[in-house]
């Protein structure tokens, strides 16, 4: 089933936004398997029948929630105003933005992890992440190119590999909270833990590409 159209009258759009927000919360707390349409409807203050009317199934609603979340993430990163910043500062700003998206949204880490399970287990359609990621690659590559041209970054950096590695590292304390916390010896989602992981991860990524070593 296709994603419901976002070009809807205000009343319908408002209802669909409430359903997406409710789904985001319930899916993050209970996962796709544990979430019930009744719980999502109750959270959104609508009837269960209305959920099925707009989305057809729990799986389509979940897919739409993932698509909506990934679109917000990608658009914020792509819109980040870093073109006039020195390359090292520009890259650090991108890394911090990626981290801060998870830090500010208590449901995003669990939702992302559940999304990985969903995509691994299902044949899913292309979504906003797939369609908008090339623009983020271009933005990331431009920062690296400026850094290499000015001698700040070393030559021969693969932008896609570094972007993928950076995304995993910056989000790992949220999407793999238990393992990371055990390994590092502190809660990566606590206030102090997030501050430490944020700085360490950004410094580690920059140290891997700088011409001059960065003190970690």
TrEMBL record:
PANTHER family: HTH-TYPE TRANSCRIPTIONAL REPRESSOR SCO4008, TRANSCRIPTIONAL REPRESSOR. This is TetR/AcrR family transcriptional regulator. It comes from the Bacteria. It comes from Halopseudomonas formosensis. Gene3D superfamilies: Tetracycline Repressor, domain 2 (1.10.357.10). Residues 13-73 form the HTH tetR-type domain. Residues 36-55 bind DNA. Keywords: DNA-binding.
């Amino acid at each position: 089933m296709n994603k419901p159209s976002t070009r809807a009258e205000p009343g319908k759009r408002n209802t669909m936004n409430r359903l997406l927000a409710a789904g985001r919360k319930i899916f993050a707390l209970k996962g796709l398997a544990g979430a019930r349409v009744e719980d999502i409807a109750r959270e959104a203050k609508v009837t269960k029948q209305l959920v099925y009317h707009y989305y057809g199934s729990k799986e389509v609603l979940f897919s739409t929630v993932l698509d909506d979340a990934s679109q917000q993430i990608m658009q914020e990163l792509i819109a980040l105003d870093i073109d006039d910043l020195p390359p090292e500062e520009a890259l650090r700003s991108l890394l911090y933005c990626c981290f801060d998206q998870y830090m500010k949204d208590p449901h995003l880490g669990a939702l992302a992890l559940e999304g990985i399970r969903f995509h691994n287990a299902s044949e899913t359609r292309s979504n906003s992440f797939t369609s908008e990621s090339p623009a983020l690659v271009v933005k990331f590559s431009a920062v690296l190119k400026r850094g290499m041209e000015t001698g700040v970054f070393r030559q021969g950096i693969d932008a896609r590999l570094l972007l993928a590695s950076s995304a995993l590292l910056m989000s790992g304390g949220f999407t793999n909270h238990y393992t990371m916390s055990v390994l590092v010896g502190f809660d990566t989602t606590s206030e102090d833990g997030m501050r430490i992981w944020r700085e360490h991860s950004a410094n580690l990524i920059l140290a891997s590409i700088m011409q001059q070593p960065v003190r970690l």
